[in-house]
Design a protein that fits this description.
Elements lengths: L2 H4 L7 H32 L19 H11 L2 H32 L5 H11 L8 H11 L6 H4 L6 H14 L2 H9 L4 H12 L1 H16 L3 H6 L8 H7 L8 H36 L2
Helix pairs in contact: 2-14, 3-14, 4-8, 4-11, 11-14
């Protein structure tokens, strides 16, 4: 018998291929439904505002995007607002990655009095709805004199219970205690051990947390809406919200600003998609 004759041929199963075709069809339709709002955003940003509610709707992009961007810059100090949002999102992301990973490292690899109680209390705080804390947070920021200041948005967001929990679980499984003991024997300090050994190992989890944190800060509306009152200090979400008029709204300018606001999020996710997925799945694989 030749090799060709001995090759196993999988029998043709119409039911199997039909189910697979239906599965791909459903996934494709779901992807199109998810992408359509972004496409419609681009259409509105490139066509006259009067055509937004026309019937039948115009579904082909036009050529008025730059005109709408110019109108947007006339209505708002958009470049300054864009810089505010970039600085705010990067500051929150950087601080949260540092403090959450540091606290997660302490909870995962150190034994100290009250550790389990503190970690349990941390988990309890994750169950508290954010809306419940808005009034106490506002009163506290007023006492600190931080109203109309980004300090009220950045400093309270420097540490997050979910981030600490995530880092603790990841470090507990990914970082061998024997490696840390070897570093201590070599004379490394606790912080040096964290910075030179732990951080490189947990980089996938840090990448995933960075993407989630950056997107959350970038899209935050409630916090800046409550704290920031000066137009020059607005974030993108607040600035775009002010463009929604009671009687008339320049939808072309509004959607042009939305396109510019969404672009960094898409770029950040595309650049970090592989690291994000690896960070999400690594913890589950190690926990099996």
């Amino acid at each position: 018998m030749t090799i060709a004759q001995s090759t196993y041929h999988k029998p043709f199963r119409p039911g199997f291929w039909l189910r697979r075709a239906l599965l791909y069809l459903v996934i494709t339709l779901g992807a199109l439904l998810c992408l359509f709002p972004f496409y419609w955003m681009v259409v509105v940003a490139t066509r006259p505002s009067a055509e937004v509610f026309s019937f039948p709707p115009k579904v082909i992009p036009g050529g008025l995007f730059m005109e709408h961007v110019q109108a947007l810059f006339k209505m708002l100090p958009f470049a300054r607002i864009y810089g505010n949002t970039v600085g705010y999102a990067l500051s929150v992301t950087t601080l949260m990655l540092f403090f959450d990973s540091l606290a997660g490292f302490a909870f995962a690899k150190y034994r100290f009095p009250g550790r389990d109680f503190l970690f349990g209390f941390l988990l309890v705080t994750m169950m508290i709805p954010g809306a419940v804390t808005l009034i106490p947070w506002f009163v506290e920021m007023k006492l600190f004199g931080w109203l109309d200041s980004y300090a009220a948005l950045i400093i309270p967001s420097a540490v997050d219970a979910f981030g600490i929990f995530w880092m603790r679980q990841y470090i507990q499984d990914a970082v061998p205690s024997e490696l840390l003991d070897a570093a201590r024997i070599d004379g490394a300090s606790d912080f040096s051990t964290y910075w030179r050994i732990v951080v490189p190992i947990i980089s996938p989890a840090l990448g995933a947390l960075a993407i989630l944190t950056f997107m959350g800060a970038w899209n935050n509306l409630v916090g800046p809406l409550i704290i920031i009152t000066t137009t020059e200090k607005f974030s993108l979400t607040v600035a775009l919200n002010t463009l929604i008029g009671l009687r008339m709204t320049d939808y072309g300018a509004l959607m042009a600003g939305t396109v510019l606001a969404v672009l960094p999020i898409i770029i950040v996710f595309l650049l970090g998609a592989r690291r994000f997925i690896s960070g999400i799945t690594a913890g589950s694989i190690q926990g099996m």
